[in-house]
Amino acid sequence: MRNKAYSFINVLGLALGICACIIIFLITNYEFSFDKFHPDQDRIYRITGEAQAPSGEREFLNSPIPEVAAFQYNIPGFEAKAALHFYNGKVSIKNTDKKVTVFNNGNEIIVTEPQYFDIFKYTWLAGNHTSALSEPNKVVLTENKARKYFGDIPFSEMIGKTVVYDDSLQLSVTGIVKDWDQNTNFGYTAFMSIKNIQNGYLKQQIASDDWKSLSPHQSMAFVKLNKGVTASQVNAQFAVFIKKNVKLPAGAKLTMELQPLGDIHFAKEFHRGDDGDDFRKPYLPILYTLMGVALFILIIAAVNFINLSTAQSIQRAKEIGIRKVMGSSRRALVLQFLTETFLLTFFAVIIAVVFVRPVLSLFYSFIPEGVKFEPFTIPTMIFLVLITLITSILAGFYPARILSSYLPVLSLKGAAVQKGTGQWNLRKVLIVFQFAISLVFIIGAIVIGDQIRFMNNADKGFKLDAIITMNKWRDAGGKLKVLAQNVKQIPGVEKVILQGNAPMGFAHSDEIFLYKGKNEINLKVSSEIGDEDFIPFYQMKLIAGRNMVHNDSLRELVINETYSKALGFAKPGDAVGKLLYDGANKSFPIVGVVADFHENSFHQAIQPMVIENVPQREWSMAVKLASKGKQAGDVKEVISQIGAQWEKIYPDTPFDYSVLEESVKLLYGQEQNTAILINAAMLITIFISCMGLFGLIMFNAQLKTKEIGIRKVLGATVANIAAMLSREFIQLVIISILIASPIAWYFMNQWLQDFVYRIHFSLWIFIAAGISAIMIALATVSFQAIKAALANPIKSLRSE
């Protein structure tokens, strides 16, 4: 209470640092908690693999492929093994009054084997896990799903009830299991017997009940190892099995391995929408960066405390001398100062806890949906206690050691002031440390911001303005064509095309083509599906040949410039007229070459690509809106009319569309999140550093009160005195710039290496960061410096 300003700065600085640490703890604790609750989770693995073609093309596999499906019978060491296949269909339930209720489901339904329940344990409310899926036409439901379908009747009465999928597949309920209440990627709510695919409706999608029937990208295979068996032992057996049983083309490779259950949540290579496991994948480097940021922010807050505490030590020298004369030991003084620090930290933790929920609400769109702050849960309480103790020791130990070291005779004479030189040197080092970290974040924010602007504004090779897209997978009866014709008639719609996917985004198709030139070139290339309207719709640049023409009997190809080079042609025009062959040895003429355009994010180089007209693979519709001169309300009205047409054609499917420009920006979602993280860290570190700087200039001005008075009496101007007080701090900031610049350059250069197309460092980035830091420091110290310079010298010198 006697030092309100210093206490306020200390508590607020610590509160900011601790609040950031709590939020980062909540995020990281949430992400690392997924599927940690399963019994024997250290023995549960997903089988993954990688296939490499002779050309070097690599493909990640989620499950066994046909050539190696027999491993389940030939490799020992598995206590249980089960495959699963995703199924997405609507559900119909006939009620007692014979009314039918329809439910739409996402990827909550799987087709699997009885041993799935030996790998992943559930509490059974009705039925038996050994027999529930042993026969065809059976399904197991979770408690919440069963209640949704059948209401509040006893679980025993739900056994035998009928569930109809897609109006075609009638299954009998044979079990009810309790929903998991912890974080998991496997929150499935319905489990169909894999024997359902032996006949009937599912046989059209899955050929047999063997694992080899499961498409590598639509399924997963799990095993639970016997006790004492290690993953490395099984991986070695996989390699031997593949070598003995799989015939691969020359230069091709196939590897299979076990992926620990705990790694699945972060396995980014398997996240491919409909072609992957479709789990939300946090970016592991960002989580580690978050933890590093939390540590740095906490250290900066502690550095602030140390700076201000040691600065105050001169004022407390006589107090320490008196306490020692009255009998206090050094240990008792250390305990006193650590207790003071603990109290300040405790107040800071209370303030931080109050701020957590508002901050979570402010950043809700960047924080995983499941992250919640419940201060009275055991993990959170333990974290809060630990952060309080660690911060108290980190911030309080050195000041306590310094303050308790003063000799009583010298401190009562005021001689302890002479010991301030060493402490001032320490404070200089700490100021440099604080601003160096702040500058690293400033430079990082500038670089990341520039790279994101570069990616957003760079020429993608096609136009994406005012385009929206709608997808309808498995379009029955060509209804999408009817919808396209209807949408064309809407005023405000400029053009409509059918396509496979938008040119740039997450979803892509691949196809293998063979060129029979001087040397046969067999390549897997990206395939864009579109007709003769595709190239003009996106305003792509045709650099050789012509566009494809509408022809029901001849399939023509347009390739990109990269593919023409990969085929060995010096000029794009040389590729025109050549033939490419598919896997069935059917030939297709190349009629044109387009300038390269980006299909993927700037992390990846532009790959060989073909544009081809395959009507049966047109599952997307792109609409160009006539937005020029239109108001936002007009565009919304047009989209509303498109939605009305959609609902006429697809009454059972909600209207959903994507703005292409926004979809492309989603490719850089991780970078956007990184930018937000770095900017937030930059603001926090700068604010805490400036608070400390403000406290130190305030203390320095008080220490030099008489010197300032004498200088003013001798004719010094306000500008002279303000410059004298500010000069030393600005020099420290300049030293910080020199230290931070190479560190920031190294880390940001490493970050940029992940991009094939990227900005280049220039000197102005460091100059801009340095000028920003100097201006921030000047703004911080100038107010207090000018205030001290304007003080009346009579007040400071009247006792002399």
Would you kindly provide a written description of the structure presented here, covering whatever features stand out?
α1 runs antiparallel to α7 (284-312) and α7 packs parallel to α10. The protein starts with a helix and ends with a helix. With 800 residues, it is an alpha+beta fold. The protein has 22 helices and 24 strands. Residues 207-217, 271-275 and 416-421 have low confidence and may be disordered. The strands form three sheets. Strands 1, 2, 3, 4, 5, 6, 7, 8, 9, 10, 11, 12 and 13 form a 13-stranded mixed beta sheet that branches. Strands 16, 17, 18, 19, 20, 21 and 22 form a seven-stranded mixed beta sheet that branches.
Oligomeric state: single chain
Q: Summarize the biggest pleated sheet.
A: 13 strands, mixed
Radius of gyration: 34 Å
Roughly how many Å apart are the termini?
A: 29 Å
- Helical content stands at 40-55%
